[in-house]
Specification:
The chain has 10 helices and 39 strands. It has 660 residues and is mainly beta. Among the domains are: 244 residues, no CATH class; 59 residues, no CATH class; 35 residues; 90 residues, Cystine Knot Cytokines, subunit B (Ribbon). The strands form 12 sheets. Strands 1, 2, 3, 4, 11, 12, 13, 14 and 15 form a 9-stranded antiparallel β-sheet that branches. Strands 10-9-8-7-6-5-16 form a 7-stranded antiparallel β-sheet, with no helix packed on it. The longest helix has 15 residues.
Length: 660
């Protein structure tokens, strides 16, 4: 057949020959014949009628995008919307050739719409899981390989994973496959020479033929891609069928931000990537959710597609702050930056940046991301610290110091050598110690020499040893446990008499004398009449009586704790909430029921939310921990009858009737 080229195009008219084979079933499919026919038929043609594009390396790439709530563009350029909230196969091989497949997990994100939350890539024996989590307002990319957490940049013999702080990129050079994920956006890039005619799933078939994009797992082709997408749910799970959301009325929403895609901002990319599905998706999102910044996802997806085609565009400034991206300090946003940022670690730079290999070739194009400000350098791949120069020495405490810096540490003078960037130290005379003054009550000057006993902890025998401390030059005190009496004269001992929990005694040594000091606990005011019945108890100190006062309303109370799970701990305290306070309770006699009726209410949670924090584990890995946070408390009705009371009241009434 002949293809009509637009008048403005510089491409000449050419002949396309139909594929010289027919497939009655997948087992007779000839990949070599297909590829040769495909390559000869479509070589050097680039039009919005076909969603294949040639890169600077002159090979054809099949590209599938997904973004927003969510919108899809198949390998052959078919656009459709699908609001499913299950796990689905985006792409599988029809005939297993590389054991490569991609699965996505969607969830409902509001107003009946769904959003992607993670993507899983299966390759050979690997399971690569990519997601994005919100930690205190900062979106962090998380990656695991075979269920073990890894930190990008990560590389083995088969694949590489990198991140720009916004987008995570997985490349597999052996099969020329690339997968990207940035929260609400994913992209799958496959070379047609490897996958032509051998893909199925929500991304369709990579064969430059849109008529078979909506193919079911059975091989049947249906007219509706959303209907097709539902059938590709993974793990044999049951998912509710989602009906397509009707298009909104255009005049009810402001889609000005969507016009940026068609403007001169993206002009240099228009001839490479068709922008119409991205504009359509942008208008759909804004008119359904009625918030302008939701359209940023479509702009970002189009910008990502342009970047993969070799055109990096600074587009966020054109949105006048609506699509501004804020990076975690000290890093700053850059529209076009390297996929692997150089660091002050030479081994890292050599492996991920300098080494000329297939991994480097597949991660060479610039993407938007978070980078150190101009004039500074990333200290290391595992840190978020930017330094003015890499001419530094790393110190044992994790800090750093510039070259040629000198400092005194104990009885050593150290310097950061400029040539080797290593710390060297030489022994110097120790500085004179200030004269000791014992001007506090109970203090006495002690001049301990080697072998002398030194009072330290109760029931420990400590002495001044001959060993020296390397940094201070002082003798080291050595201790060993020894049997001892738990009362005076062992200094530091604290005890409480069994018959009086409100008194504590401490044994102290003052001026070579052992003295027992008495300390009494002062309890807060306590009146049982002002307490809610049943809440009276003894405080943990075993001394004071406490209760919930009648006048205290039901409210949220907060306690700061360090959360722990599976041996991993939080670095900072977390506010754990609870409900406490008084609620209404009363009893009345019901003539209708002929018994005492009870009405009770309990201080309980009214609204809760789930919060996620990151725990640090002993093996330097991270663990996401989700806990329930109480937003508000209130008095809710609860069962409060006491067994036997109602029966007693009823029996009393019957007894009176017999007297009559």
């Amino acid at each position: 057949m002949y293809v009509q080229i637009p008048k403005k195009s510089s491409v000449k008219l050419f002949f396309i020959q139909a594929c010289p084979f027919q497939c009655s079933n997948y087992n007779t499919f000839n990949y070599a014949d297909y590829h040769n026919s495909y390559h000869n038929s479509y070589h050097n043609y680039n039009s919005s009628n076909f969603y294949y594009h040639f890169t600077s390396h002159n090979y054809v790439t099949c590209t599938c995008y997904g973004w927003g709530d969510p919108h899809y563009v198949t390998f052959d350029g078919t656009y459709y919307d699908f609001q499913g909230n299950c796990s689905y196969w985006l792409m599988k091989e029809i005939l297993p050739k590389y054991n490569f497949s991609v699965m996505i997990d969607n969830y409902y994100c509001g107003d009946g719409l769904s959003c992607p939350q993670s993507i899983t890539v299966f390759y050979q024996s690997y399971k690569i899981f990519i997601t994005q989590k919100d930690f205190n307002g900062n979106f962090t990319n998380q990656v695991s390989v075979n269920d073990k957490r890894v930190s990008p940049a990560y590389q083995n013999d088969d694949f590489r994973i990198v991140t720009t702080g916004i987008q995570t990129v997985l490349v597999i050079p052996k099969i020329h496959a690339k997968v990207t994920f940035s929260g609400l956006i994913f992209g799958i890039y496959l070379r047609s020479s490897e996958f032509a005619g051998n893909t199925e799933g929500q991304c369709g078939t990579c064969d430059n033929n849109r008529t078979d994009d909506c193919m079911l797992p059975s091989g049947e082709i249906v007219p509706s891609c959303p209907d097709m997408a539902h059938e590709w749910h993974a793990n044999d799970s049951y998912c509710d069928r989602v009906h397509p959301t009707p298009a909104p009325t255009p005049d009810t929403c402001n889609t000005t931000i969507c016009e940026i895609i068609k403007s001169s901002v993206f002009e240099s990319c228009h001839e490479k990537i068709d922008y119409s599905p991205f504009v359509k998706a942008c208008e759909f999102d804004i008119c359904h959710m009625h918030i302008n910044h939701i359209g940023c996802t479509s702009l970002q997806t189009y910008a990502d597609a342009c970047a993969e085609a070799g055109v990096c565009i600074d587009w966020r400034t054109a949105t006048k702050g609506i699509c501004e991206y804020k990076c975690e300090s000290p890093k700053v946003y850059r529209a076009c930056g390297p996929q692997v940022e150089s660091t002050c670690e030479s081994w890292y730079n050599q492996k991920f940046i300098v080494a000329d290999n297939a991994f480097r070739a597949m991660t060479s194009m610039e993407l938007e991301g978070c980078f150190c400000p101009n004039g500074t350098f990333l200290l290391s791949a595992s840190s978020n610290e930017c330094v003015p120069t890499c001419e530094i020495c790393r110190l044992p405490n994790g800090k750093w110091t510039p070259a040629n810096t000198t400092w005194i540490e104990g009885c050593n003078e150290c310097i950061c050598e400029e040539d080797t960037l290593q710390v060297t130290c030489r022994h110097v005379s120790c500085p004179a110690q200030p004269s000791l003054s014992c001007d506090q009550d109970g203090q006495v000057k002690v001049t301990d020499t080697v072998g002398d006993l030194v009072p330290m902890k109760p029931c420990d025998k400590c002495s001044c040893s001959a060993r020296k401390d390397a940094s201070s030059g002082f003798n080291i005190i050595e201790c060993e446990p020894t049997p001892c009496d738990t009362h005076c004269p062992v200094p530091g001992t604290i005890w409480t008499p069994a018959d009086n929990p409100c008194v504590k005694f401490e044994c102290v040594k003052i001026a070579n004398q052992f003295i027992t000091i008495e300390a009494k606990i002062t309890c807060p005011p306590y009146d049982p009449k002002e307490c809610i019945p049943g809440t009276e108890t003894i405080a943990p100190d075993g001394c004071c009586h406490v209760c919930i006062p009648k006048g205290q309303p039901c409210k949220v109370t907060t306690t700061s704790v360090y959360l722990e799970s599976q041996g991993c701990n939080a670095k900072e305290q977390v506010n754990v909430t609870s409900c406490s306070g008084a609620c209404g309770t009363f009893t009345f006699y019901s003539t209708k029921m002929r018994s005492l009726q009870h009405r009770c209410s309990c201080c309980q949670e009214l609204a809760t939310s789930e919060r996620t924090i990151e725990l640090s584990c002993p093996d330097n890995t991270k663990l996401s921990y989700t806990y329930i946070h109480i937003e508000s408390c209130g008095c809710l009705k609860t069962e409060c009858s006491v067994p036997g009371h109602s029966e007693m009241a009823s029996t009393t009434v019957k007894s009176r009737r017999r007297r009559r």
